[in-house]
Amino acid sequence: MNVLRAIIISMMFFKKLAAISAVYCGLSYIAGMFVYLYILQYNNATTAAAQIDITSSKAVLMHITTLHTYVLFSFAIILIATYLYLKLKDQQQALGLLSLIIGIIWSTILIASGFISMTVTSMFMSGAEITGLENAWQALDIIKNALGGGNELIGGVFTGLLSLAMYKARFSSMLTSGLGAIVFVGGFISSLPYLAEVGIGIFVISQILWFFSLGYDINKNE
Fold first, then answer.
1. What distance in Å separates the CA atoms of residue 149 and residue 121, rounded to the nearest whole number?
2. d(CA 128, CA 151)
3. The domain containing residue 130 runs over which residues?
4. For the chain, first and last CA: distance in Å?
5. How far is CA 141 from CA 2, 17, 128, 147, in A?
6. Are 197 and 185 in contact (CB under 8 A)?
C-alpha cells in the first residue's frame, strides 16, 4: 500500500510539473519574442556587424533569454512528452512513443542551438576580442538556424503526433487538437522555400496557444 501510495503521489506531482511546463513553454515564447523584437530589435539587424554589436552590448540579456527559450524550454518539452507517453501508452502506444521520440530529438537540437548561442554570449561577457568575427558570424548563424529556429518541421511533427495521440485517447479538448493540427501545418510550411517566415509565424502563434490549452487539459485530466 505504501508503494502504491508513493506511486500515486509521484504521478500527481509529475502531472503538476507537466502542466506547469506547458504554461512555461507558452510564456517563454512570449518572453523571447518580446526581448528579441522589442528590447533588442534584433530583427532590424540585417548585417553581421549589426548583429554582433547587439549581441556584444546585450550579451547578458541574450544569454539569459537563450537559456530560457532554448535550454529550459527543451527540458520542459521532454518532461511533457514523457508524462503524456506514460498517460497514453495503454491506449495509444505507437503514437505516444513516436511523439516522445520526436520530442526528444527536437529538444536535443534546440539545446544544441542554444548552447552555440550561449557560447558566443559567454565569449562576449568574458571580454573576448570581436575583431574579425564577421567572417565566421554567417556560418554560426546558419548552424543555429538549421538546428533551431529557421525550420520548425520537427517541432510541428512532434506537436501534431502528440495532439493526434491525445485526441484518439480522448485526453485533450477539440481546441488543443485543432491547434496541434495548425502547429503541424505551420511547421511543414516553414520547411518550404520562400514560405519559411509565414510558416514560422503560424507555428509560433498557434503553438503558444496550444501550450496553454495543453496545460489546461493536463491539469483537468486524472
1. 18
2. 31
3. 2-220
4. 20
5. 53, 33, 19, 10
6. no
Measure the CA–CA gap between 96 and 108, rounded to whole angstroms: 18
Other Cβ atoms within 10 Å of 47 Cβ, number: 10
Strand ranges (E), the chain = none
d(CA 222, CA 218): 8
Cα distance between residue 60 and residue 55, in whole Å: 9
Check: CB of residue 22 under 8 Å from CB of residue 80.
yes
Domain count, the chain: 1
- What are the tens digits of pLDDT across the range 103-136? 999 999 999 989 988 988 988 888 776 666 777 7
| pTM (two decimals) | 0.91
Cα–Cα dist 109/36, whole Å: 20
Cell match 493536463: residue? 218
- 51 in Cβ contact with 141 (< 8 Å): yes
- CA 26 – CA 216 distance, rounded (Å): 12
Residues with Cβ within 8 Å of 57's Cβ and at least 6 positions away in sequence, in order, are: none
